Inverse folding.
């Protein structure tokens, strides 16, 4: 009993250091296996003196095992439950962040949830709390009226999730820029990847108007998701480290000192499997949070820009109104800026870049596709659209610190509408094909709806047929030029 009293503090420290988060059954086994090496040596000496075989244990070993299992661990679990109750009584425990001193001690660059960093509980409470509440917290943010918001639905979709993770901007997060494989025409490669993402997102949403309840308007929720991502990823790393540490004890060399072997008994397969599954589940949830953030910014673009084309009036005369930015564009810029401010404080730089890279390409695609929905557009309306594009480009450039050339592409598309329908066809011949056939069709049809004296539908059909011929001719010229270069080489 005196021995137990002396060792109780050691066991208590062991429990509070996070070694018992696996659960009650495996926890007592783990505590027993890490019990004082001196005690185990003492017990072995007794068993040797009593000439007990491998199948028998001395009463002292049985007593200690039962004490740890039935008494000590119950005390530890009671203390853990008390800590959990204390944390959950906070008004919003999963939005409370660790202070700067704690972050410095942990060596992290961005804030972590405070419940991960409580001094007395360490990982014990962290694993318990996050295992129980991280998913419900995630659901409470991304779910509205028993329905997931669009970004969460997309992140949950296997096809979209798989596509996003296959794109270079996702894989680039795991590699410093200088270590990434160099490709010829890197810019075109990245742009093609962004094009694939934009195509899938536009294809999934179509021309649907998005109601406010299907987006996350509260920036504090987005910030909480970012904090959750960083915390879960940090915890996944800690879990993997624990897994590696325990795995190492199973590969000890036979020549090691017997006392060292007694101090580090191999961890059970159950514990290792639990750790591996925990690390995987934490990382998957962290990835899901980041994908939701990436997609949510894009859903905001759809939310504001689709009604701009479908409901906006751009058949306006030159007046003061035509010089103003569209209110929807102003609100989108305001949202993007607020999200940028929250993400820059909550996410590491490479993840921040992941949120906003390619956003200009998507906005460009939405605006160009919007030509299909305008009833009519005047020269003043074209000018207003170009001003809208400019202010969006300016805002994104300040965030990404790049030119956002894709928005130049959208501006040039609308500037093309200053021409008549026949002039547009000549422009394609002179400058080559810059847009898709469908985008040219949208432009020709919008000009046909907007301008007077452009002929009837038969004339328009002839123009559309001529457009197809021009595109085929341009493709043939391009292929011939390419073949000539190959032959020359």
């Amino acid at each position: 009993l005196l021995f137990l009293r002396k060792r109780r503090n050691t066991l208590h420290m062991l429990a509070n250091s996070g070694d018992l988060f696996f659960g009650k059954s495996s926890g007592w086994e783990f505590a027993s296996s890490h019990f004082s090496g001196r005690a185990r040596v003492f017990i072995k000496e007794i068993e040797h003196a009593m000439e007990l075989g491998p199948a028998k244990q001395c009463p002292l070993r049985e007593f200690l095992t039962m004490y740890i299992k039935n008494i000590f661990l119950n005390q530890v679990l009671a203390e853990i439950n008390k800590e959990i109750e204390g944390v959950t009584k906070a008004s919003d425990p999963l939005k409370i962040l660790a202070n700067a001193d704690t972050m410095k001690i942990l060596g992290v660059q961005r804030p972590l949830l405070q419940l991960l960093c409580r001094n007395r509980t360490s990982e014990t409470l962290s694993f318990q709390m996050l295992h129980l509440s991280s998913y419900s917290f995630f659901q409470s943010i991304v779910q509205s009226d028993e329905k997931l918001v669009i970004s969460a639905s997309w992140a949950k979709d296997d096809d979209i999730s798989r596509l996003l993770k296959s794109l270079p901007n996702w894989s680039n997060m795991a590699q410093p820029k200088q270590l990434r494989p160099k490709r010829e025409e890197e810019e075109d490669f990245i742009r093609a990847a962004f094009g694939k993402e934009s195509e899938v997102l536009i294809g999934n949403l179509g021309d649907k108007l998005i109601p406010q309840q299907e987006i996350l308007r509260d920036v504090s929720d987005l910030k909480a998701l970012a904090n959750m991502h960083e915390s879960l990823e940090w915890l996944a790393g800690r879990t993997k480290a624990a897994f590696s540490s325990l795995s190492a004890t199973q590969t000890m060399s036979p020549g090691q000192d017997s006392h060292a072997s007694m101090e580090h008994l191999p961890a059970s397969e159950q514990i290792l499997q639990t750790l591996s599954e925990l690390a995987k589940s934490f990382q998957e949830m962290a990835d899901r949070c980041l994908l939701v953030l990436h997609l949510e910014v894009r859903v905001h673009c759809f939310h504001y820009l689709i009604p701009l084309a479908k409901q906006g009036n751009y058949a306006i005369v030159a007046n003061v109104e035509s010089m103003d930015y569209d209110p929807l564009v102003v609100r989108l810029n305001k949202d993007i800026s607020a999200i940028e401010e929250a993400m820059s404080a909550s996410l590491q730089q490479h993840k921040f870049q992941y949120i906003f890279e390619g956003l200009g390409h998507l906005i460009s695609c939405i605006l160009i596709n919007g030509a299909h929905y305008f009833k009519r557009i005047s020269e003043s309306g074209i000018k207003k659209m170009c001003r809208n594009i400019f202010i969006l480009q300016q805002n994104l450039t300040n965030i990404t610190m790049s030119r956002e050339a894709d928005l130049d592409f959208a501006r040039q598309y609308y500037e093309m509408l200053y021409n008549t329908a026949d002039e547009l066809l000549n422009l394609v011949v002179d400058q080559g094909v810059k847009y898709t056939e469908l985008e040219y069709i949208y432009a020709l049809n919008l000009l046909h709806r907007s301008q007077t004296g452009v002929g009837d539908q038969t004339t328009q059909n002839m123009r559309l047929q001529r457009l197809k011929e021009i595109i085929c001719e341009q493709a043939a010229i391009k292929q011939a030029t390419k073949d000539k270069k190959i032959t020359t080489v």
Remarks:
- Residues 1-36, 119-126, 253-267 have pLDDT under 50 and may be disordered.
- Residues 269-311 form the longest helix (43 residues).
- The beta strands are 143-144, 147-148.
- The longest strand covers residues 143-144.
